[in-house]
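User: Good morning. I'm curious how zinc ion would be positioned relative to this chain. Could you predict the structure with it bound?
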Amino acid sequence: MRRARALVASARRIVVLTGAGVSAESGVPTFRGQGGLWKSFRPEELATPSAFARDPRLVWEWYAWRRGLVAECAPNPAHLALARLALSGPTPTTLVTQNVDGLHHRAARDVAGEGGDPSAAFPLEVHGAIHRDRCSGCGALSEAATEVDVASVRTLPRCSVCSALLRPDVVWFGEVLDPDVIGAAFHAAREADLCLVVGTSALVHPAASVPDATARSGGSVIEVNLEPTPLTGRAAVTLLGEAGSLVPALLA
Ligand code: BJW
Ligand code: ZN
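Assistant: Good morning! Here's the predicted structure, ligand included:
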């Protein structure tokens, strides 16, 4: 922790990459590892365009369940400490998240307070947002329907323009990430001299390569995770434990 704090204190520009582990203590299940399975499906079986084409009802059931969960959750001390770093820390900071749960946005608003401007702590959401829908036909975006009736494929939400099925506005395996968003994330990582990586298994690309962009520019990587990951060998410091206590302690 002493070494990690020294890296934070001497950094001139910071990029933060978060994954599902940062929201675990808020009650949002992770994808892999303990508690990471939904009805024994692996994310690779559900988060794909072919799964949606084969069984849109099943995929919508998963997302409807997750939307309901996220609505009941609140940002935890890790989200809040990262929002404070980006809003009022001494070092320019860019937040990048693989999460679609919107908890970084909510933390930014909480920290900025009424009348404050939270936007500097809004993350680049490289895998999209669960609270938006996108038409699988014409691509039109809309705010998520409040209730999704997953009784049958006929009751699933449809586009008001072209009648094709709506889907959550998230990035599935085999789909390309928005080039502007992932491009901005890699740009921030190249400009940063410190990349703080919190709660990701670092398995899913291209997001998992963001810390390498900082390292290739001569910067350092700090990792916070319950367990070692493929990134651990390339990190200057790995802090093993829960993000909700380690991140606030690191940034205090
Ligand atoms: C805690 C904690 C606590 C728990 N405190 N820590 C290069 C090499 C190899 C493969 C590829 C490659 N480039 C592209 C690919 C293919 C593929 C890929 O990466 N596959 C790998 C699995 C091998 N990538 C893609 O398809 C991407 N598209 C793309 O690259 O397009 C171009 C292309 C297409 C085809 C071929 C080649 C190129 C798209 C990836 C989209 C990922 N989508 C999902 C779903 C999003 C929507 C949704 O949420 O439903 O994104 S999958 C899922 O995984 C989700 C997550 O954002 C992502 C990462 O998961 P994350 O966040 O790391 O969570 P977990 O659960 O894995 O880990 C949690 C961690 O937290 C663990 O380590 C715990 O220990 C820790 N933890 N509690 C601290 N309290
Ligand atoms: Zn449409």
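The mean pLDDT is 96. Residues 19-21, 24-25, 30-33, 36, 43, 47, 98, 100, 127, 170-176, 199-201, 203-206, 224-227, 229, 242-243 surround BJW (ligand 1) (CB under 6 Å).
Let me know if you'd like a different ligand tried.
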